[in-house]
Amino acid sequence: MTISWGGRAKQMWQAVSKQVPAPLAPPDTFPIDEVAEMLRDIGIALIEVQVPSGVVESRLERIARRYTSEPVRVVALPTVLIVQVGRVGHEVAASTGGTTQLDRAGKVDAVARLATAGAVAPRDAVRDITTARTARPRFGPVMILVGYVITTLGFGIVINPAWTALWAYVFLGAVVGAVVVVAGRIPTLAVIIPSLSAALVTTLAIWFVADAANDELLRIIAPALVATLPGLSLTIGAMELAGGAIMAGSSRLVYGVVQLMLLAFGVAIGVAIAGRPGSPAVADRMGPLSFYVAIIVIGIGLYIYLSAPRGSLLWVTAAVAVALIGQKIGGLFLSSAHSGALGALLVFPFAVAAAKLKTAPPVFVMLLAAFWSLVPGALGFESITAAAVQRSLDAATLGNTFSAVFSIALGTLVAWSIYDTVFARRDDGLNSGKLEA
User: Fold this and answer.
1) What is the pLDDT of residue 6?
2) Helix, strand, or coil here: 186?
3) How many angstroms separate the Cα of 60 from the Cα of each of 115, 169, 239, 351?
4) Distance (Å, rounded) from C-alpha 46 to C-alpha 41?
5) Within its chain, how far is the Cα of 367 from the centroid?
6) CA distance 283 to 243
7) What pLDDT does residue 432 have?
8) What average pLDDT does the segment 196-219 reach?
9) Which of helix, strand or coil describes residue 9?
């Protein structure tokens, strides 16, 4: 018996794609209180790995339909989750802090996938999600520091591809990376990281780096401060606000703006301590291929610094490449503050399609890496910092800042709307309804 080309293609697709497991039991098999506890723990874990609140609500509702026929209400905010199942199961959880640890996001997503299919008992899901939430990063402090330095070098080549500035990116990246690693072990220092890092880097750059690198101060220090730039918070907040989640979106946006202001204040302090830098000389620029080398460098750096899941290096790098190349193409016909829209528009369908393959990480792991590479806060940081140093904050500066943020959010929302309209209704359930973590 011969197999048609369509049959062969189907077999090949099944061999390389992730399959939806069968449900363990029909709805209403497990006690409501266990279902409510499972929804609470999965939901707060999704919030902690930076999944937008609307996505969390939608995903928990889909999980609930696999386990109960009772009405379910979910309210998700950036740090709080409220779940009610019927009139009995009522759970409230608060998060003590988010994380960009990508391997944790992958583990949380694995449990959520099983629950979405109804393929795990509630108690087992609670146990597995607790293990995922307490998982340590794959890499130790030294490797995380190395990853941060590599990431800084890559972003430096993208933002300011000057040969004389390479050593400055490595030096300043190591300084900020050390601060971030130490602060990660002392949570009480997290509040002052933006101002402390910015002030320290600015002072060192003026004293030892800027003149030697023959370049402008802000272009030298911006790559090193990538970890403290609130680009991810601003982008997700803009997505939530545009999607109708007013409380979640506005609170996240306010948080991001405050972080951005603290960074600018730190730079102003550094300038006050070290004095204003002199006029830089013209630095030798790298060739056009440096941009594509930087993509690989950023992919490797983010893979280590964000502790991405095993085997995801190529996928993380590919997501970074799609985002940055899309942003570069967008820059041909859009302003620099708006070019991120095309990068976000292109990386979303790539992540959704790639996540269906067995070897690929979850959608949101790739999207997080892509959002980092787009650095939506970088342009805003440079403009606001320049205004802070020169004491001339105006409407145009604020406009450029929020244009960079909302352009990326708009690109993601447009891509999601197209996907939801065209593909979601005939999806196999693996990624249906909303973004996967």
Assistant:
1) 61
2) coil
3) 9, 42, 19, 21
4) 9
5) 6
6) 44
7) 40
8) 73
9) helix
* Mean pLDDT, rounded, for 396-407: 60
Structure tokens at 267: 């730079």
Q: Is 356 helix (H, G, I), strand (E, B) or coil?
A: coil
Query: How far apart, in Å, are the Cα atoms of 212 and each of 170, 219, 278?
Result: 14, 14, 11
Alpha helices in 306-437 (DSSP H): 313-330, 340-354, 363-374, 376-390, 395-422
HSE (side-chain half, CA atoms, 13 Å) at 339: 18
Tokens of 127: 């146990």
CA distance 27 to 42: 18
> CA of 363: how far to CAs of 181, 269, 296, in Å?
27, 40, 20
Place of tokens 């609130």: 230
- Sign of the alpha-carbon dihedral angle for 234, 240, 242, 244: negative
pLDDT band (50, 70, 90) for residue 386: low
Three-state SS annotation for 33-81: HHHHHHHHHHHHHHHHCCCCHHHHHHHHHHHHHHHCCCCEEEEECCCEE
pLDDT for res 433: 39
Q: The tokens of 257 are what?
A: 């703006």
* Other beta carbons less than 10 A from residue 9's beta carbon: 11
In this structure, of 18-22, 31-35, 135-139, 289-293, the range with the lowest mean pLDDT score is 18-22
Among all chains, which residue has been given the structure tokens 């130490």? 182
Q: Which range among 218-222, 254-258, 322-326 has the greatest average pLDDT?
A: 322-326
Residue with tokens 């528009």: 345
Which secondary structure element, helix H or strand E, spans residue 82, and what is its range? Answer: strand 80-85
pLDDT band, residue 303 (cuts 50/70/90): very high
Pairing outcome for strands 89-94 and 72-76: unpaired
Cβ(46)–Cβ(133) below 8 Å: no
